[in-house]
Amino acid sequence: MSSKRTLVGSFEYGAVLATGKLNKADHVIFAYEGRDQTKSWRIEEIQVWLNPIVTSGGDSRALLNWCLTTDFLDDPGGTTLTDLQTYARQYNAQDNRGIAWGQVDYQNRSATTGEFRIPFANIPFGMIANGRRAINYLILNTMIATESSAMAAGQNQVNYRIVMSEIKIDPTESILHQVRGMAQDVDTNRPN
Predict the structure, then answer these.
(1) How far is the C-alpha of 16 from the C-alpha of 22, rounded, in Å?
(2) Is residue 188 part of a domain?
């Protein structure tokens, strides 16, 4: 019988740049260090969302794009649009480090008594790669873009809820999952 674990938390994204300029933030949400390398975790559910109260800079749209990975993604190396577009390609399903992906489209609303954001009139997009397992790390990588003025730091908390079940695997499978998870990240920047 496998045991279940729910990871719940949030982290501060920082300022969101104005008019569609990209930036990113990532956060380690799970780290397992132990001698028992036969432990593995299967992701069963994941929800990622932004806090609803924000100084929106006017009526506009914002997009939260996220990717849950089993190892660290390569840093963009700069802040140009080209740097961040190259970084964003790692959110693609072909990258072995990816285990789940999603997007939430938000409507920023400006009002005289308060400003807020709500998920736009659609179903938030999200999916899980069931065959991929977490062995050591889970990192939530996020990119937020807005089409209006910048949203100040302190107003952009990324929230998450992840349900995962612990499963046993043999040592050979553990090694294969770890190698596969790092296969596209040879120069890993994992903190050790």
Answers:
(1) 8
(2) no
